[in-house]
């Protein structure tokens, strides 16, 4: 393959920039700029020059020999000063050698996949790790990058291969008496994998929420103090506040980090019947977003008010504008009860986050559902009697293929384009 290069750090002005070169000619490119490369595993300061001998920069130079690198190829990294002019000059000098070309988005990681340095689930985890904004997102992505899903699949695969081998014995020796009935062991192996799959599938929705963010909707009648509360939580004037009822017409969103969890708080239109067509649209949107949200906080205008939306056991109901009513409740103006509300929201969402699975994407869930369906059918065939053994074995093979697709042993190409399109040039 071609030798490729790119800026591996974010573009723009910075203290240090890392330029990565990977491929069979990476060492030659490094030598063309630095004169000589430090021993593998060591970092040394080198002066960089272009093809005409003009100085470029003084950089820290590292080299890695295949297969002991991120891509599995020979790799040279140049840690230069991070000014845009320096970066441009060094990239131009690399291109000027004629030995390497600019990398395409995600090409370094794709080579790591093709050289068996990563599986496809780890690639997805790396994309999530790059995008992680909160601690929960970082930890979740790191588990996938570290091969957690691949280890699970390997364990399931081992059990299913054992079960398939036992079934093949009964098929191969169908005309002879097999000394041991393998059905109980096969059924036990299948049920064990099926139990794990159901647990993982159930946790994917939570894992997706950690990756994309939980939604918390603030609801209540007009002038219940919703927008003021949102502004207090956001620490800025995110929503317009007014004594005029019905000021908020659309859903206002503020993204924040609550104890490491990504949360989007929604300020919605006041819930009431209105003759104003625009306000009615706002109320309809408020009800729709509230229904889809992970958690609802309903602000009552009075102690006697009954919420006008369907709430779950986890949802929170508190009295708004407590500074005016004199009752125990919450006030965005004085801050009364805000810390307690944040603690309740965080505790509720943290409990849900604890149910996350190692699988984190809809693609993972779909592959596991298909595998589970094949195993359920296979188990039914096993329990139907020895005449159905061949059908049971085929369903086991289908399940194994579905699980293999999770980590890219088969059916990789259909998902590679979507995954790698999310990467920057330096990855």
> How far from one another are the termini?
17 Å
> What does the overall shape look like?
flat
Instruction: Look at the structure and give the mean pLDDT.
Output: 83
| DSSP E strands, number | 11
β-strand amount = 15-25%
User: Looking across the biggest beta sheet, what order are the strands in?
Assistant: 3-4-5-2-1-6
How large is the radius of gyration? 29 Å
Describe this structure in words.
The protein has 427 residues and is an alpha/beta fold. It has three domains: 4-114, Gyrase A, domain 2 (2-Layer Sandwich); 135-209 and 361-408, Up-down Bundle (Four Helix Bundle (Hemerythrin (Met), subunit A)), CATH 1.20.120.430; 214-353, P-loop containing nucleotide triphosphate hydrolases (Rossmann fold, 3-Layer(aba) Sandwich), CATH 3.40.50. 48% of the residues lie in helices and 16% in strands. The chain contains 14 helices and eleven strands. Strands 3-4-5-2-1-6 form a six-stranded mixed β-sheet. It has a five-stranded mixed β-sheet with strand order 8-9-7-10-11, sandwiched between helices. The longest helix has 30 residues, at 183-212. It is flat, with a radius of gyration of 29 Å.
